[in-house]
Write a structure and sequence with these properties.
Blueprint: H1 4-14, E1 29-31, E2 34-36, E3 42-44, E4 51-52, H2 64-75, H3 80-90, E5 95-98, H4 104-112, E6 118-122, H5 125-131, E7 138-142, E8 155-161, H6 167-173, E9 174-185, H7 191-197, H8 202-205, H9 210-219, E10 221-233, H10 239-244, H11 254-262, E11 267-278
Parallel strand pairs: 4-7, 5-6, 5-8, 6-7, 8-9
Antiparallel strand pairs: 1-2, 2-3, 9-11, 10-11
C-alpha cells in the first residue's frame, strides 16, 4: 500500500495544472515532492501528503477535537438526506471543497458517487491532517479562501458547506458553466442545542441567513434551491459529539454541558438551505 506522501506526489505531478503560486500567481511546476514557481517559491509535501500554502502561521479557534466530533456526527447519518442530494450534483465533477474541515462531507460524497480527482482545503492545519486519513482520490491542503492557490477555471464544482465565501475567488477558479453549491443553516438548525446552551439569550437561539442568500444571488445565477428540515434521532454514543461539534459550544460552561449530559437531547433539528448557482 502506498504511503500518503507517495499518493500525493503522484497527484501533484499529474494535476499540477490545477495549482498556481499564491504569492506571485505564477504557474507551479512539480519537482519530486514539491511544487515550485519561476520566482523561487516552493511548497513541499508534508509527511501526511498535504501542501501548506500560507506564508505565515495562522491560529484559529477551530481545534482538532471539534473536527473529530464533527466527523462522528456526519458519519452517524445526521446529514444523510443532504449528502444524497449533493451527490446527485457531483457525479463526474472535479470538486473544490472550500473550508473542508476534516473532509467528511467530500469523503461521504466520494464514497457513493464517482467524482474526478478533487481537492479539499481549509485554513486549519489540524483539520486538514485529519482529512488525510481518507483513502479516496482527494488531495488536501492548507490554504486561504481569499487567495486560493488554484488556477483560473480549474474546477467544475465548488462546495461551500457551512463556511465563509469569497465569491470573486470562486468565480475565478470555477470553469465556465460551472456550479457552486452553498449550504447554510436555516432558522431551526440545531435549535434544541441552542436553547440548551443559551437558555437566557434569545439572540443566540435565533438565526437568519437572508443576507447570505441575497449576497449569493447577487454573485451567481441561482439554478436550484432546496430546503431540508427534519429531526434526527440521537444515539447515546453520539451525545458528546453533538455537544462538541460546532462553534456553538464556544463560551458554554462545563456546568451547562454537564446538565445536558445528565439530561441528553433525544432529537436534534436539521434545517438547511442548499443554494446551487451557475457561473
Amino acid at each position: 500500500m502506498k504511503k500518503k506522501i507517495e499518493k500525493s506526489q503522484e497527484f501533484i505531478h499529474k494535476y499540477k495544472n490545477l495549482f498556481r503560486c499564491p504569492l506571485c500567481q505564477q504557474k507551479l511546476q512539480a519537482k519530486e515532492k514539491s511544487l515550485c514557481c519561476s520566482n523561487g517559491h516552493q511548497f513541499d509535501l508534508s509527511k501526511k501528503g498535504t501542501l501548506y500554502f500560507l506564508n505565515h502561521q495562522i491560529k484559529t479557534e477551530y481545534q482538532k477535537k471539534m473536527f473529530e466530533h464533527r466527523r462522528v456526527m456526519i458519519k452517524s447519518g445526521m446529514y444523510q438526506p443532504l449528502l444524497e442530494f449533493l451527490a446527485s450534483y457531483c457525479e463526474n465533477e472535479q470538486l473544490l471543497d472550500v473550508g473542508c474541515g476534516e473532509g467528511s462531507f467530500l469523503q461521504e460524497i466520494a464514497q457513493t458517487t464517482a467524482i474526478q480527482p478533487s481537492i479539499g482545503f481549509d485554513i486549519a492545519k489540524e483539520a486538514v491532517y485529519l482529512a488525510t486519513e481518507d483513502t479516496h482520490d482527494i488531495f488536501w491542503c492548507v490554504a486561504d479562501l481569499t487567495n486560493m492557490p488554484f488556477n483560473n477555471q480549474s474546477f467544475s464544482t465548488i462546495l461551500n458547506i457551512f463556511t465563509p465565501s469569497n465569491y470573486s475567488e470562486f468565480a475565478r477558479v470555477l470553469q465556465k458553466g460551472g456550479q457552486i453549491i452553498k449550504v447554510v443553516p436555516q432558522s431551526g438548525y440545531l435549535q434544541e442545542l441552542r436553547k440548551a446552551f443559551y437558555p437566557d439569550d434569545d439572540r443566540k437561539q435565533s438565526y437568519s441567513n437572508e443576507q447570505v442568500i441575497e449576497k449569493f444571488k447577487q454573485s451567481f445565477s441561482l439554478d436550484a434551491y432546496k430546503r431540508f428540515t427534519y429531526r434526527f434521532a440521537l444515539s447515546e454514543e453520539n451525545q458528546d459529539s453533538l455537544l462538541e461539534m460546532s462553534p456553538l459550544e464556544w463560551g458554554v460552561s462545563d456546568k451547562q454541558k454537564e446538565k445536558l449530559r445528565q439530561n441528553p437531547l433525544k432529537n436534534i433539528t436539521v434545517d438547511l438551505d442548499v443554494l446551487i448557482g451557475k457561473n
